[in-house]
Design goal:
Blueprint lengths: L4 H9 L9 E2 L8 H6 L2 E2 L4 E3 L21 H4 L23 H4 L5 H11 L9 H8 L3 E6 L1 H13 L10 E2 L5 H4 L11 E4 L5 E6 L3 H15 L7 E5 L18 H16 L5 E5 L26 H4 L3 H4 L2 H4 L6 H4 L2 E3 L2 H4 L19 H16 L6 E3 L1
Length: 387
Amino acid sequence: MGRCKFWMQQQQSGSTGSSSQPCRSPAASQPGRQRLQAGCLLYPGGRVELPPPPPPGSVPFLFDTAAMPSRAQACAGCPKKEKPPLCCGVCIFEDRRCEQLYPGQNRSEATLALLLGAGHRFQDFTPCELFQRIRGRTLWFMGDSQTWHYFYAAECFLRNFAPSLKRSPALPSPANRELAVTWPVTVPPLCLKLALGTRVCAVRVDSVADLTSKVLPKLHKLTPNFNRDIMVFNVGLHYPTPGVDGRPAHVSALVTHLKSFAAWRKRYRAALPALVWMDTPVQHFTGHDGSYNGGQKPFRCAPLKAWDNGNPVVLGGGRHNVPVAPLIPLFADAHLRTWNASVPLWDTHRPGECTHWCSPSAYHLWLYLLNGELRDSKLGGPVQIIP
C-alpha cells in the first residue's frame, strides 16, 4: 500500500501540518474504479478536492468489492493461523461477503440498487471526506458484535489511508489484553492505523457497566488526546427487550443502565470522546417486529409485518430504541439513526440467522449515515468539499 504524499512530507520534515501541499489519497495512483472513486486531494484546514465523477452506473466505492484487497493482500505479513484475527482481515469481513454466502444471487447488488432508489447518494461519499472528519483522531466502535462488524466496514472503506493493512492493538500489551472484557467472546481491541495520526478501532463491550468500570477508564489513562476522539456505541441487543417482561419499558435494565451512564458521563465529560449513540439494530426474525423470540438455527428471515402495518413503535425505532430516545441527549453528542434505514434489508442477513448481515450491506449503509451525522452534528474536523 502506498502512503499519502502529504503524510510522508510531514514525517520527513517534522511539519505540524502547515504545508499548503495537498495530501493525495494512495488510491489516486491505482488503476480502475479505485482511482475514479477514491482518488481525491486533501488539504490542511479541511478542504477536500474530489476526483472527477465516476462513469454513470459504476459501483460506488463503498460497495465496490472488485476494488477491495484479496485475502492474500490483506493478510500479507500476518500469521497464517490466527484466532481471533488481530492482524489479518481488512475487507475480509470474517468471510461474510454476500457473494461468498449467497453465490450467484447478487444480494449485495440488489441491496445497493434498493438503497440508491431510496435516495442514498453513495456515489458522492468518498473515503477522503470521512478521513478528513476523523483526521488526527481515533474513531472508536464500541459495543457488541454488530458494532464490531460495523468497524470492519469502516476499516475497509478507509484502507487507502493505511500505510499497512496489518491491524494493530489499540493499547500496548498487556493493557490491550485486559480490555477483553466480554465472555465467551474474549477479543481484545484492535485498530487499523491510518495516516496523520488517525486510527479506526474496535472494542468489544456488551454492557454499560463494563464500559464505565473497565474500558473507558483504561483508554483514558493510556490513550493520548482521548477526549479528541469520536466513539460510536451501542449494546442494546445484549439487554432484554424493554417491556418484554411485562414491566414498563422505562424501568427496563437498558433504560436504567443508560440513565446511570448519563450521570457518569456528565461527571467525566471533559475527559471522554465525543459519543455517537447508534440505534440498536433491527432484526428480521419472523415475529411481528423482527425481534428474536426464541428457537434455534436455522432461522428464516422476513420483512417486518408490524412495519408494513404501520405499528407506531416499530415505525419509531422498535422496542429497544423508543424508550431510550428521550435519554440520548443526556449521554450522547449525536444520535445515529440506523433502524428505519435498515428495515428493508431483511434478505442480506447471514444464512440461518436474522441478526448479523453479510457485506457489503447494512454496515456499509451505516457508515454513510455516520458521515452525515458527524457533519450535521459538527463532530470531528471541519470538511469543505471542493467539487
